[in-house]
Amino acid sequence: MPNYYCEKCGSINLVPPEATHFTCKICHTEQLTPAHTESVEDTSLNNMVLEPEQVNKANNDSLFNRFASLENVRVYDENDADNPKRDETVSKEGIYYTALSKMGGEDPELYREALKMLQALKGYKDADDLAEECSREIEKLEAEEEAIIQREAKRKKRRKLLLAIGIPALFLVAAAILYTIFIMVPQSRYNKALAAAQSGDTVTAYEIFTDLKGYKDSLAQAKALFEAYKTKKMQAAAVGDTVYFGTYEQDDKKANGKEDILWTVLEKTDDAVLLLSVYGLDCQPYHNKNEAVTWETSSIRQWLNNDFLNEAFTSEQQAKIRTADVPAHTNPDFETSPGNNTKDKVFLLSTEEAEQYLRTDEQCRCIPTTYAISHGVSCGTKKYAGHNTCTWFLRTPGLDATMAGYVSSAGKIRHVGYSATTVFVGVRPAIWVEK
């Protein structure tokens, strides 16, 4: 008679060959049998058939060896007359092996299922010892699970606490930073400027008030110090600093008067500074006739030392402008005659001086004023400080006597020069001023 394995409890049942259904003797579950013409031949534990001839055939099989290694394991012939408890023994074996199969992992639920099976086998083989082992493992796994749950609960609690504390704290820190940036720092600098003004440090006071950009009455304070600042700054200026001296129309709004001229300090001696206008102040040709010309005979020299001089500086300021020796520098690439040396209050840089004082393209770039643009200066595509730049004349002759050197809008010094009568080039005056 074939042996069939119960799918639910794992017990083995003896079922007549012709039966299509059987009811498990252990769990009383009704279930289908394999085809009634053949018995189960699957060697897996779930459908193991322990017929005598199959046992002999699988004598070397690893699963059979595992069974055979256990004490008191017997395989009965279905017709063995000495097997009165055959059904009971086969059923216990199935439960025993099923319980074993559920042990060894890390799932406490499987251990609980194994424990119930082993408790039902009380006194059978080593079921009691295995039941104790299951109990210990269940306690261990449950303790580990509980520890994980507790750790996760603590982590969530800490996170909530941090969020509860952190968000308000973050707002407080942000508020403190903003307060420091927009209130404390400006106030501190404002107080420093007031102290500097009271101590006579006009330059420091003016520059701080100007940099505060309207904080409290800083603009009014800067305006009150401006005239004194211009004089003090000129006296203390270093090479590379900017200073104010003279006035000239720059915003092209004559109704609001002329604007102060900003200069860059190119050189400094004990008693004077060489200044170059920061901006292109006007638009003038180098010479107003198409003929051979030098700096000495150029119309721009006459314009700078008459029209511009009188328009930009008061008589007191003109007295401070030194009459400088202006050398006739030769073009380094061409043999064009530079003419004679001159003495001038206002002049243009030579190509040699431009290369000496303006070391980079950025330093050479020049932004024209609105007034200069309205009078014909043409801007290129290059920008400096966000503004389009222009070309500006130098006093050195170019390729021939009808041309003059210049600096391009990109900040390149060009020895070949432009035609002296070119009308879209900016004017960037230079002067020596006594401190």
What does this structure look like?
The protein is an alpha+beta fold. Among the domains are: 3-102, no CATH class; 238-434, no CATH class. Helix content is 42%, strand content 20%. The protein is built from 12 helices and 21 strands. It has helices at residues 52-57, 62-68, 86-102, 108-120, 127-199, 202-211, 218-236, 299-312, 315-320, 351-357, 361-364, 370-374, and strands spanning 3-5, 12-14, 21-23, 30-32, 242-248, 259-268, 272-277, 279-280, 282-283, 321-322, 324-326, 342-344, 346-347, 367-368, 379-384, 387-390, 392-397, 403-407, 413-419, 426-427, 430-434. A hairpin with a 5-residue loop joins strand 17 (392-397) and strand 18 (403-407). Helix 3 (86-102) packs antiparallel against helix 4. The longest helix has 73 residues, at 127-199. The chain is elongated, with a radius of gyration of 52 Å.
